[in-house]
Amino acid sequence: MLGASFIGTAIEWYDFFLYGAAAALIFGPQFFPTQDPLAGTLAAFATFAVGFIARPVGGILMGHFGDRVGRKSMLLISMLLMGGATVAIGLLPNYAAIGAAAPALLVAFRFLQGLGVGGEWGGAVLMAVEYSPRNRRALYGAFPQMGLPAGIILSNLVFIAVTAIFAPDMFQAWGWRVPFLLSGVLIIVALYLRLQIEESPSFEAVKHSEVVEKNPLRTVLTRHGLTVMLAGAVSIASPAIGYIYSVYMLSYGTTALGIARPTMLWLIVFGAVAHLVTVYVGAVLSDRFGQKPVFTAGAALVIVWAFPFFGLINTASPGLILLAFAVMLLAQSLMAGPQAAMIAELFPSTVRYSGTSIAYQIGSILGGGFAPLIATSLFATYGSTVPISLYLLVLGALSLGAIILLKVGRYSASYDAPEASRHAGEIYAGDNGPVR
């Protein structure tokens, strides 16, 4: 089950980050031709952000049906949406071939990608955490989280391969499409794995006890609205770091610093490997010392490292850039390790898919979706990375303030399937905690 959760999520993030790499490297001239390369990059990053606008919609829709129908079916639908949209992008004619229809369709397919990944995180996390033993909840919840750096590694390795295999003009003409078309094969593998797993025991217990919530969205917003907002604020800093590092740095490093494209791609891969390992470490620490203290340490480290981060990157030294990445990604991992289990435990089983999905996607759109666009605009306006460092510092402070206010672990007992019916009344407890 954990393997299917990790692999499926990694492939979905491969699709999602593949778009980010392409937006930084190729989508500008292909779909937004202009005399100003900066304008083309900004337009490409704007379409990247469209996926984040769609993610809350996907989270709401799949959260609703995930709480009513089941987690497994929504994971299959999210996989089909993501894979189909990614392959369609690989087949899409560019601006030179079909004119304005090309960027319009690109935006539409990116929206479908956002719908898919919007429902993916909540379902994958719940399938992992709701199967977990009490003393390993953060670790189980971290497996879908580790799928994110795995997706970054895979997408960048594929781009490294195609840029090495194809000559520059061939890569510009059609070679960039190969990574998108490869997604079709990967999706088939992920679908097969997900078809083999059983439904979450917590949802099965809810269904058998006949306490399935008729309107999960209304319930979670009216009775757990404050928790949703705080959990969304908690989730802001982590995705911002991820997209600044994995998407914006690819553009900034190759254009502003003059670093070779393969070098930047490899630096991002090495950083993602460090991230993959440290997410695991963050989860283990959370299970031992508590979710809130570990998350708090990560948010504080973002604040401390925001300015040294760009100070090291601006040396254009690959070794110092890798050091900057490693420390910032450690901060992200200390937040990502406990994040899945921590957010899931904020909501009872009957509305858990809706609550976790909406909270996480609020953080993702506010913190991550517009981060590359904001960073590009700030550097273009001020000619300095100081405003970008300040931007990261503020996001870290928001997540730190929210985690201090958040009451974690309210519904941890409702993971245990035999107790689900006993905790059915929790849905009426609202932000004051479960009624026992």
Give the SSE layout.
Elements: H1 2-25, H2 27-31, H3 37-68, H4 71-91, H5 95-98, H6 101-129, H7 137-165, H8 168-173, H9 178-195, H10 201-208, H11 216-223, H12 225-234, H13 237-255, H14 261-289, H15 291-313, H16 318-344, H17 352-369, H18 371-382, H19 386-405
Helix pairs in contact: 1-3, 1-4, 1-6, 1-7, 1-9, 1-13, 3-4, 3-6, 3-17, 3-18, 4-6, 4-9, 6-7, 6-17, 7-14, 7-16, 12-17, 12-19, 13-14, 13-16, 13-17, 13-18, 13-19, 14-15, 14-16, 15-16, 15-19
Mean of pLDDT: 84
Structurally, the number of domains stands at: 1
Secondary-structure element pattern, one letter each: HHHHHHHHHHHHHHHHHHH
Tell me the span between the first and last alpha carbons: 31 Å
Query: Structural class, please?
Result: mainly alpha
Which class in CATH terms?
Answer: Mainly Alpha
The total beta strand count reads: 0
- The CATH architecture can be named as Up-down Bundle
Helix content: over 70%
Q: CATH fold name, please? A: Growth Hormone, Chain: A
Fraction in beta strands: under 5%
- The CATH homology group name: MFS general substrate transporter like domains
Envelope shape: globular
Q: Outline the biggest β-sheet.
A: none
Low-confidence stretches: 416-430, 432-436
Number of H/I helices: 19
What radius of gyration results from the CA coordinates?
21 Å
How would you describe what is shown here?
With 436 residues, the protein is mostly helical. The chain has one domain (2-202, 212-432): Growth Hormone, Chain: A, CATH 1.20.1250. The protein has 19 helices and no strands. It has helices at residues 2-25, 27-31, 37-68, 71-91, 95-98, 101-129, 137-165, 168-173, 178-195, 201-208, 216-223, 225-234, 237-255, 261-289, 291-313, 318-344, 352-369, 371-382, 386-405. Helix 1 (2-25) runs antiparallel to helix 6 (101-129) and helix 6 packs across helix 17 (352-369). The radius of gyration is 21 Å and the shape is globular.
